[in-house]
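Work Package 4 report. The design task specified in the project plan requires that, given a folded chain encoded as structure tokens, an amino acid be chosen for each position. We show below one input record used in the internal validation round.
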């Protein structure tokens, strides 16, 4: 599984497994394939035929689980953000801002590494005005954001970290971590025409964590 909890395998479970497991695995395979195809071709360019082929399932199976392309698109893109919101568990269960923010940054970096298509798909949707996820942004993301702004404000008021604008800090964390997914091709060019190795990425993750935490008066 990746950091979001979604199986990485693109192949559906075959007959013989319990029906519930088959359904879950097929849905995950379709969603992962859709994430890649939508990110590469956009909503208009992607077809359910292409997604079904990528997932390794008949087109009829895809429509059994997801009635329309739009329904599949919304499910996939909301799942991407759900995984990002889940990365902030450290902020909810740890009252030490250095440890909590450090863990949050680490998970967000790992998600950029393990699930780049999801990050690119989210960016594409937001850049076109978020027409398919406007209600999700208002009903889910905004509530999460307000709650966690309050957490950072409380830490600052208690003297546990420098008093910075929480909105700016979150935007900086998101922009920096998701850069490693959204701009991977640019990074590769600047890295001698090759993607970052695991060792290089680990160093980058450590540097991102150190720089951001130092900027709010915390030690990595």
């Amino acid at each position: 599984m990746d950091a979001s909890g979604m199986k990485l395998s693109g192949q559906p479970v075959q007959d013989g497994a319990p029906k519930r497991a088959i359904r879950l695995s097929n849905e995950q395979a379709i969603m992962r394939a859709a994430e890649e195809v939508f990110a590469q071709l956009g909503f208009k360019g992607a077809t359910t035929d292409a997604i079904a082929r990528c997932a390794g399932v008949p087109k009829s199976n895809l429509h059994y689980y997801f009635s329309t392309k739009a329904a599949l698109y919304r499910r996939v893109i909301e799942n991407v953000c759900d995984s990002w919101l889940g990365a902030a568990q450290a902020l909810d269960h740890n009252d030490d801002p250095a440890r909590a923010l450090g863990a949050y940054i680490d998970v967000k970096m790992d998600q950029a590494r393990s699930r780049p298509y999801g990050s690119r798909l989210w960016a594409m949707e937001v850049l076109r005005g978020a027409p398919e996820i406007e209600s999700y942004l208002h009903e889910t993301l905004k509530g999460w954001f307000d709650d966690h702004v309050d957490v950072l404000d409380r830490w600052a008021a208690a003297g546990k970290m420098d008093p910075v604008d929480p909105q700016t800090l979150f935007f900086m964390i998101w922009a920096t971590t998701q850069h490693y997914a959204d701009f991977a091709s640019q990074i590769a060019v600047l890295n001698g025409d090759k993607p970052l190795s695991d060792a290089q990425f680990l160093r980058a993750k450590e540097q991102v964590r150190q720089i951001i935490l130092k900027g709010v008066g915390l030690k990595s």
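The chain has a mean pLDDT of 91. Validation will be extended to a larger panel in the next phase.
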